[in-house]
Amino acid sequence: MSDDPQSPSSTEDVPSAPGWVEQSVEEIFSTLRQGPNTNKLRNAYLDCLASTRSPEDIDAAHDRCRQSLIKALREQEKVGGQALAALELKLEALEAAISERV
Question: In whole angstroms, what is the distance from residue 62 CA to residue 49 CA?
Fold first, then answer.
């Protein structure tokens, strides 16, 4: 076995959202019609939130995460109008709660 420090391991730390964030996102998405890519898009949103590290730009990063998700849901899952508006309000509230805890 090599002691090569550049080899990744199965215990390598990767960014992840706190459990309460994951649970909140799960609850928010449970109200949305599920399409073929919905889970993938939800996971990408969570990954985006988790990769936001700097408190100085957390709000701008969250905006980018949310806007990318909304665009993907509109284009890939054909979610529209009121459903997207309601989802966006819920996500904004979640992101505000995250910012308060940082």
Answer: 6
**What does the alpha-carbon distance between residue 59 and residue 95 come to, in Å, rounded to a whole number?**
8
pLDDT for 15 = 59
Contact assessment for residue 2 and residue 65, using Cβ atoms and an 8 Å cutoff: no
Q: Select from 76, 4, 71 the least CA-distant residue to 36.
A: 76
- Residue pLDDT, tens place only, 49-87: 998 877 778 999 999 999 999 999 999 999 989 999 999
Alpha-carbon separation of residue 43 from 7, 50, 55, 84 (angstroms): 26, 10, 22, 17
Q: What is the pLDDT of residue 11?
A: 42
